[in-house]
Write a structure and sequence with these properties.
Chain lengths: ~240, ~140
């Protein structure tokens, strides 16, 4: 009994590696992620998120999960001084939280240790698992490697999709940082904080240093790396 | 002199409280996470305390955010050092303040290496690139 499966869901390849889980448990994970996609996708006109955005569905009448996510988006917007913004691009798009939130929830469906990779955002239980941090300029190299158990790690960067992250406060594409990696307990938080810190640009590292229960590594333009003090304890040397 | 010290302690407490007063809600915390305790703070070398320095402890004060007690050192009527003896509060505000006081960031050069790993963070492949890659892999498999 050893399950490792890749499926394409929520617009991303999702890899579930769960050595102690059976087929049914992994099926349940992907079924859950599809339910989330149907409900939250900003690209599906019939999703609750799109219906709320068009004014056809009141937020208070939405599914409890949608209400929970939107409330958490609002809190994250406050916590990040507006740098995490589910309306950064104009239309309602809580995807920056949804993916991590959905994977956090999926954890309850899997027995034993697992590693879930949702398009480069990773949640692990048990292990330890060895998680590479992609080099922001060379996709065949790592900028760091971490040894993690019961942790979430997310990285925001501009390398894959160009300037795909917007600076909701200053406007325009986020600049100043090449990538921001955040390690914490929940993938929803890791993803949202990495997104916000990346949008902050050069101010991001100082902000990450104040995040409780989080460690962060920011690669700035000029190939300077700034790490929170506890990150070193999670690292393994690179070859 | 004792009264003067006590007055200075009160002043010091007031200064600490004022310094910790924040009109904005805490901007930084993650309610779900307690990945690790913050690392021990770097020890700060004690300030010089010349002969004749007097010290006194302030009262335990409870604020909406925490309970705090400080000790003050006074030399010739001037406050020369203040130490926080007691500070509680696991709430976000206090932790955000404590976090700000931590020695902050480590700077290093960017590495470009490799390691034996299970997974990579940051590989946010777009659907298109993933599908292209999958198609190419299927194509390659057919040729094999």
């Amino acid at each position: 009994m050893s399950e490792r499966r890749v499926e394409h869901v929520m617009g991303l390849p999702v890899i579930v590696d769960a050595p102690a889980a059976d087929d049914a448990a992994v099926d349940a994970v992907f079924a859950w992620l599809r339910v989330v996609d149907a409900r939250f996708s900003p690209f599906r006109p019939d999703s609750e998120v799109c219906r709320i955005d068009r004014g056809e569905l009141g937020a208070s009448d939405a599914h409890p999960d949608v209400r929970e996510v939107l409330a958490r988006c609002a809190r994250l917007r406050d916590e990040t001084g507006g740098y995490f913004d589910a309306r950064a691009g104009g239309a309602l798009d809580p995807s920056g939280l949804v993916k991590g939130w959905a994977v956090d929830r999926a954890a309850a469906l899997l027995p034993g240790p697992f590693c879930i990779d949702a398009g480069g955002d990773v949640l692990v239980r048990g292990g330890p698992w060895r998680v590479g941090v992609r080099h922001p300029l060379r996709d065949d190299r790592l900028a760091a490697a971490l040894r993690l158990s019961d942790a979430a790690v997310a990285t925001s960067g501009a390398y894959e999709r160009g300037d795909h992250l917007l600076d909701p406060v200053g406007g325009g594409p986020a600049r100043g940082a090449l990538s921001v990696t955040v390690v914490t307990r929940s993938l929803g938080a890791a993803d949202a904080y990495a997104t916000a810190a990346f949008a902050m640009g050069a101010r991001g590292p100082a902000w990450t240093a104040g995040l409780r229960g989080c460690e962060a590594m920011t690669v700035l333009a000029g190939e300077r790396v700034l790490c929170t003090p506890g990150l070193g304890g999670l690292r393994v040397p690179l070859a | 002199m004792r009264r003067a010290v006590a007055a200075l302690v009160v002043t010091a407490v007031a200064v600490v409280l004022l310094a910790s007063y924040d009109t904005r809600p805490p901007t930084t915390f993650n309610p779900n996470s307690a990945l690790r305790r913050p690392p021990a703070r770097a020890t700060v070398a004690p300030r010089p305390r010349p002969p004749g320095t007097l010290s006194a402890k302030g009262p335990l004060l409870t604020t909406p955010f925490s309970t705090i007690q400080v000790q003050a050192w006074v030399h010739r009527g001037r406050l020369v050092d203040v130490k926080t003896l007691y500070l509680t509060g696991s709430d976000a505000h206090t932790n955000a303040l404590n976090a700000r006081a931590e020695p902050l960031l480590r700077e290093e050069a960017l590495e470009a290496g490799s390691a034996d790993i299970d997974v990579v963070t940051g590989a946010t492949y777009t659907s298109e690139s993933w599908r292209d890659s999958l198609s190419a892999a299927i194509e390659a498999a057919r040729v094999e």
